Task: structure prediction
Amino acid sequence: MMKRNFFDLKLSDLSGVLSDMDPKPFRLGQVLRWAYVMGADGFDLMTDMPKDLRDKLDEVLDLSPMAVLDELRSRDGSVKWLYGLHDGELVESVMIREEGHNTLCVSTQAGCGMGCTFCETATVGLRRNLSLGEITAQVAYAIRTLEGRNRLRNLVFMGMGEPLKNLDALVPALENILDPSGFDYSPRRVTVSTCGWVPGIVRLAKEGLGVNLAISLNAPDDSIRDLLMPVNRKYPLAQLMEAVRAYPLRPRQRITFEYVIIGGINDSDEHALKVAGLLRGIPSKINLISYNETSARFRKPEEGRIEGFQRVLLSRGCLATIRRSRGEEIGAACGQLRALSKGTVHAGEK
Ligand code: SF4
Result:
């Protein structure tokens, strides 16, 4: 019998499975502490539980449901894992090390169907949605590697795929991530990033989970955004900004806008002025990121251009920061590891 992915169980379902095997109410807390907080990769490690219970759990549930096929480490401490799923699909997550803490970039789909023209994952197309367990197992694996939940501070759903196109798995995954008996993350430490899938923003707002919202903006107006991100033809900036303005925020919480600066495309002072206009009145911060040059189609901005872009935004009262490109030599832009493994990227680019 094929074992079930442990992380596919909502916490309430796990409670049901356990009580059938051992009715003691504290067993659930024990299993969750081992699996979610300590990152145990097998039931045999749960030595404060009876052996026959551990054996029974091991017969039906798999704590290591995804094989790590490749691991790349960059000089700046970032790590990228490529996972093989049970049906042969590939997915990846990236852990970024910054000033004493770690952030995990989690994937929600194998491939992606959104077709952003600057993105390596888009060349794969959408293979399939990930399950609840395939999403949360990425978090569990990073915790395991770090040897403790407390060492993984932030989770960002901006790996492979469009998270808001897989809300049926993402919402229960977020519930397990936020649950004090589960991974116990504060919603302040969890960010969902979208390319601008407006119905998903509306639904996420209704779910009331309180997680941070990030928008991959990348353009100052519809004509440039249409060119870079096909989603904009369906949901242009006016509709996107309306949904963003309606997203509920706590006091001092801000919407994050990611803006990849691509040389000669979206990087002029005039573009920066338009971006400032778009964000007027929205509690926001803008992360400026240099394009991570992966194809001949686009190029990095000229030296000093990002700083110039930032100056214009700051002069208009925007909170704008420059994010250093991390993990560049391991291809930390989304989807590149999978593309390398499948041989769709020229070997010389590795
Ligand atoms: S940038 Fe994100 S949404 Fe766009 S194609 Fe790549 S993975 Fe999909």
Observations:
- The domain at 89-349 is CATH 3.20.20.70 (TIM Barrel).
- The chain is about 35% helix and 20% strand.
- Residues 45 and 66 are 19 Å apart (CA to CA).
